[in-house]
Fold:
Amino acid sequence: MSQSSVSHSSRLSREGAYTAEEYVRRPDHIPQTGQDESEKYILALHTDPPHRQAVTALRNQHFPPKINKLSAHVALFRALPGSQLPVIQSAIQHLVHHHDPFPISTGEPFLMTHGVGLHVHVEPATHIFRTLKEQWNGFLSKQDQSFRAHYTIQNKVQSSVAQKSLVAIRSGPDRFEGSTGTVTGLSLYLYDRGYWTLKHIYPFRAEKEGERAPVAERSNDDEWPPLGAAWARE
Structure:
């Protein structure tokens, strides 16, 4: 077993979850620009509030509270390099200007390495991913070379805990009945040592005014993060 694997296992045994200070990105999560990227960005789907709140409520039930500081999300890219930010922003702006909102629905839950995920039916997102990947392929991390639409409902827990959560989500008294909604645009976050800071929401063209991010402090019902707020990693 590698040193990193031993360290990973010991942290799970001791605390059941990483802290943001302990988390170190793996090599396949680093963008391929040939330089040290001090800033990295995440691009995610932006959905309507009722759908987002329904899936976030499920996440709140199962995610380790110590590191659960993020609304549920579907990430398209997780390590976009800051050195390429003008190129990235230009491509996103062009894409959303020519794209309409589209439906999203949840599917079956599944086991992850240290948690539980939720499959997502959102075929247009795959087209968006492929379109942007074609333009950004030269600097994407190995992780960002592929895309599987899903929500992370639980992470950084022991396998026995994940198994129990999977059963509860599938068939327990509080089983998840699923959720449908609309993807209204894309959201760009700055990644900072395990935390996410929302930088910009790009609404699709059919959104007359778009959905503005709240400017107030985060509420107890886990609304979408306000601009400039820092939230923990997935």
Residues 49-62 form the longest helix (14 residues). Residues 77 and 144 are 6 Å apart (CA to CA). The beta strands are 40-47, 75-81, 102-112, 115-121, 150-154, 180-192, 195-203, 230-232.
